[in-house]
Sequence to fold (966 residues):
Amino acid sequence: MAVTWRWEQQSRNYANYGNANQWTVNAGLSSLARESAQNSNDARIEGPRADLVYSFIVLSGDARREFESALRWESELEPHLAAMAAAASGAVTAGQLQSGLKALKSSESLTLLRIADYGARGLTGPEFAEGDATSYGNFIKLCRLDLYSGKDRASGGSFGLGKAVYWRFSRLQTVLFNSTLDPKDAVNGRSRNRLIGVNQGVVHQMGSTSFQGRGFFGLAETHGDISSAWDHVDLTDALRLTREDGRPGTSALLVGFYDPDEPEKGLGEISEVREFAKSLGNALEEEFWPLLTRERVRARIEVIDGDRVIYEHTVDPAMQYTELTNALRKFDAGNIDDTLDELGDVVVRDVPIQISARTDADDRHTAFEHVAKLVVTLSDDQPDSLENKVCLFRRPEMVVQTIDKVFEGRTYHAFLLAGGAIRPKDPSIHETRADDFLRFAEPPAHDQWIPRSGRNKTSQANLTAHYRAPWVPNLRNIEKAVLDQLFGLFGAPPVAEDQPPKAIFNNLGFLSGDSGTGGRRASAPRKPDIRIQQARVVDGAWELMFDIRAKNRAEGWAVVPKLAFVGLDGGHFDVAWQTFDVDDTAEIDGKGSVILRGRPRGRILSTTVRATSVRELPIPASESAIDVRIAHADVAPAQAAAAEDNK
Amino acid sequence: MTRFAWPSYHDPWECIVTGVHLDGAAGALEIDGDHLRVDAFGDTWNSAELEVEVSTSEPQPSGLNELRGYVLVTCAGTQLRRSYPLECDDSQPTAHFRGSLTIPRSALSGKAILTAEIVGTYQDRPRAVGSSVPWGLVVDKTEAPERPGVPPLRTVWIDFADNDAPIEARRHLEGHAYVDVAATPPVLYLNKGIDGLQLLILSNSAKLERRRHCDLLGASIARYVANALFRAAVEQINTDDFGGVPDGPTGRVLRDICEAVAAELPDTETVGDLYQLIADLPAGTAASASFWANVDLALDRMTSLSPTIARICEEVKRV
Fold:
């Protein structure tokens, strides 16, 4: 039998304009890394280290034509995709297909992404979703069902949505799979090269016939069903789905790979594809550093131009997250320090997490307290993206979320091991149950335990079906408990009670005898001062010339200078002015105040006053000592008010 | 600077205390030339002999003759006002006087002021023609300014629920601060029972939101302290029954707060003006209300509360 594409005929009762699941997956290579690696990690077989290989394959010229021929592009796939694209006005997915087709037609090259795991369970089980759901294997869950997880305890996902990541990153919504099974999982005696292709398009019409959106690439069965094609080695080679070794696992090929956030990239420029590879490597390091550090999975990324490997990189988080990987290794080795004194020291603190009572009939348990482990180490002087953050993770060893907290003068790296992550080889029943509780707390993107509020709130309703409420406080308290422990480590140092509180006394500088200065940081205005330039007695009256100088300020000054007879005891007696004039840098209002207006520039406002005293004085002027004092210093009146006063 | 109707010196004379002898022996008193102060509270003594030199570089104003120098010692606590003649040193190119003065301890309390006064003859009449910047002679430690870095009042951290806490604090267990103005010097009690208060207030390198809270709370407590001290100072201002100058409060910290407030208010040039203003303040009038409103605003500004609030409001616009 020939391998072919087939879309079932559309019934009149229901139409599907695309698989909604993929819209739950964010765009961006970080999302691709999280979801795809989690899928492979969930399928990983405990035991020897598994391998995860990401291969960006760029095909052009004959290589592209050969691939398209094997894919039955011209004869089968493209016509259906073109028909789907014609429905673009009414459906998002169709619009994606339309732009994807257009982009690929205008490009010389075609980019594929192959995600292959080795040492995983592969696409096990029967072909079709019939009968008891518990008998379904990975094949049906991946290729035939939506929104069904059926994953084991302590796995990564719980929604069955993570697989959508493959289609999300294909311009053509088309993904091919080739899987090798463990011989004990053989299906009808076959275990190698199980090939299937799935297009998650939209309902479409060709001629007078309407077709469903979901199309399959495989062997056509007698009743029109499409089943896996086994052991078509030449075809799998032509489709770039060759398995590197005989270990079980699955290769997924994303046809027309792109990042939905950057659709213009990856259409011919090999340097852009190389950047994709680097970004994906960085994301894997950041999101899966615990898994990679514990060496349960080794990840490799390569870029293949035609048949030539032009870039190859083994993902190693120790290069970027040295402190975290060292700390995790020390934790696993039980090599823990009591205090954080120097670089490399690792301390562990208990973080209690209240686990709600589970209501599932087959796994019921009462509420209990799980003790997660907070591991903290000091940072070196090489900054990275996980500095001053606490990475939260459980059994899959993927960073679910971070708690960000900056402390003054201390830079740290930290992580919280919860559930099955504490003793992954031999978790206790409580740790496994705690892991399940946290798994169900995660929204479809698996990026949150601690509930957010407001617009950032994400539904964690999956818990409702399995656990007795309330569970929100339990989750919120995780953050509080982590911060409490961090505060104990990095909070303000023990206070010395005899230490004068600078926060208070910095504002009481005027109590140190330095009169008139105000607080150290206060903008206390110094009062204007008088500088007498000339003072003499003429015809029985005092004749003076003096300057008034004041700090320039926007509100200006209103100053009332008084002539005072000074006694030997320091007392004074004010006498009236006979004449009083200022230069043109100031004005005099109707109340006798000298008005100095604030200026845009300059520090000092000044004016020179020429004045004489009255002649009727308490003692003869020739027998007196005088000074000029500031009787009143206030803000300048508003211009209009001053004009009114002068009338 | 006071100007006279006759020829006089425009600039202050320089006055230097060059030596101190306590009860006839060279003592260990500290002569603080930078702050023009002699600290005489460390030892017990009956009389102090101070050696003084007074000089100016300003030429003698024309028309003046027969210059004489004196040191005037005044002490508000004992109402002392005594002058000590100095000897003219003719060997110097400009006017120069030196001499010693013996002051009995019993004539002093708190702090005495030493000022050089210069007298000359003009047109056959003796005239005051110059003076120096005053020196302080501190005989009570409480009157001495604290050394730099030493807070002007003691701070005690205590749980306000503690039996050792002052009764006023225990009446308000949730209060964060209490100033005991009756103590000498006053004591600031901070409530250790408020979880986090001590950490926040003593956090000298706080950042972001903690820094804002620390600044605001620090300024707020400073404002409360200043208010409590000023209120206590005002209660100690006594009107002179014979029309003389009102007495200010006793205690350096209370006088300091008065000097600082006087420098802020619009109608007070000196702290004496403030004492007089308060002594003359008719209770329950608009003038009284206006005075206290101005005091409130001045205290806000002096303790940085106003600028701190303005700064934080500006900052949190973008938070």
In short: Helices of chain B lie at 167-170, 197-201, 208-235, 252-264, 271-280, 286-302, 305-316. Chain B touches chain A through 62 residues (CB under 8 Å).
